[in-house]
Amino acid sequence: MNKNSRQYTWSALKKQSASQKNNKKQSIQKLIKPAIYVGIAILVLFAGMSCVSFIYASIFTQKTKAIAPPKEKMKSEIDARPSITDNEIKDILGEQNFLNSTQKKFTITFKNQPYEVVTSLNISLQQFLNKKLNRVKKLGRGKPQRIAIIVMDPGSGKIISMTGFDQLYPDSNPCFKSDYPAASIFKIITAAAAVEELDFTPYTPLYFNGSKYTLYKRQLRDVKNKYTTKISFKNAFAESVNPVFGKIGQNRLGNTILGNYSDKFEFNKDIVSELMLEPSRLEFTGNPYQLAEIGCGFNHTTTISPVFGAMISSTIINNGKRVVPSIVEKIVDSQNNIIYDKNNIMLTGTISPETASIIQSMMQTTIKTGTAKKTFRGYNRDKILSKLVIGGKTGSIYNKEHTIKYDWFTGFAKTKENSINGNNNTIALSIVVGHGDYIGTRACEYSKMIIKEYYKNI
To answer: What's the pLDDT score for residue 347?
Structure first.
């Protein structure tokens, strides 16, 4: 290869190298420019989104301010809204006689404002009982002087039926009055005390002399002879044997324990409720024989209301928990604001669930083999009653003047299954009938017809 050839080649290579460098630079520039454009586009996009977000936030904030007033304004509006206190509820409803009501709702006026009151009444059951009592009112022979019927939901204390009448005081509500002698209904409290304080079981053997339904001082002696009758605790309860419960009250429990359990069941206390209920009464004189009278209910100084009787049975079927009776579920103003909403109040500490279970079984014995056996005879073959668990306690006593015979039934009914379509299926009942010269339909018979009516669709 000659010199010129080498120079040509070298020059060519040099030019080629310069050309390649130039081409490489142009390629890099071609790559950088789009990247710069993309970066600028992304920055513009983010900036645009930030502006939109800011504008949207501003609009939303303005909207929120327009919709939601300042806290001070909301508070003033709440303060200005009509409200009713518990005391005002009682004052207002004191004039309302819920007895024999056929309306689930009604309107009242308070401070010149209309309010709708929604009750817990079962109108179908109300109408059924009203028809029964209207026929009873027309009777000559067998018409009672007074009658009061309460049906309660034991889980909430809500009254689902309240019916009755008083011939002497036709404008009063006999269900709220507490001047009825408790009679053997008090045996429920004595029995609960005996189970918890004396470790009684349904099969604890007990003894008595003389008649089941008398209470002489000689019957309170702890003696056993050829005339002595042996009986189990559950049968003494079911058959309402006065000497047995008289001895338990006087010789075993005494003033302190009986007083303690009467307090637990709310004797001599104002019941916290919107209802105008009179306190049930019990007094101790310190006389030993009076303790026997209290223990078995054979006196006129222990008095209860029919609502209180339902509370006692509710406590037993509610596993020892005590509820407050009520009939108003809620009150609504003209703007549909709920200004009163009844909260179910469950109180504990009355008796233990184990004690309540024992008393439940003893109350069932009352229906099967005790004082209510005649009324409920054949219940296990009845198409409705055979599907239920039923318990109760009866009681009867004349007033001091011996002009009215008071006849009691308090108890419960529930389906053998836990629920019907998920609904509560247990009721507590309390019925007292003040018979005049002739004995008409007894409290136990009313309880049976109520139970059959209430559970007719099971």
So the answer is: 74
Question: What's the token pair of residue 260?
Answer: 């303690």
Position 135 scores a pLDDT of 96
- Tell how many helices (H) and how many strands (E) occur in the chain: 12, 15
Q: What is the mean pLDDT of residues 122-133?
A: 98
- pLDDT of 41 higher than 90: no
What pLDDT, in 10s, does the model give residues 71-81? 443 443 434 44
Two structure tokens written together for 172: 């009063």
CA 193 to each of CA 319, 391, 408: distance values in angstroms, whole numbers, following the listed order = 15, 19, 21
The residue assigned the tokens 């233990």 is: 352
Q: 50-82: string of b/e by CB count within 10 Å (b at 16+)?
A: eeeeeeeeeeeeeeeeeeeeeeeeeeeeeeeee
DSSP secondary structure letter of residue 384: T
CA angle, 42 then 44 then 50, to 5° = 105
Confidence at residue 272, expressed as pLDDT on a 0 to 100 scale: 83
d(CA 442, CA 19) in angstroms, rounded, equals: 124
| Sign of the torsion formed by the C-alpha atoms of 115, 118, 124 and 128 | negative
**Alpha helices (H) along 199-352:** 233-238, 242-247, 254-264, 288-296, 306-317
Question: Would you identify the CATH topology of the domain 123-327+344-454?
Answer: Beta-lactamase (3.40.710)
- Amino acid at the residue 357: S
Which distant-in-sequence residues (6+ apart) come within 8 Å of 152 by Cβ? 158, 159, 160, 307, 310, 311, 314, 325, 427, 428, 429, 430
Q: Let me know: does 395 contact 297? Beta carbons within 8 Å.
A: yes
Looking at residue 253, what DSSP letter applies? I
pTM for this model (two decimals): 0.81
More confident residue, 34 or 329: 329
User: Helix 306-317 crosses helix 353-368 at what angle (to 10 degrees)?
Assistant: 110
365 neighbors 359 (Cβ within 8 angstroms): no
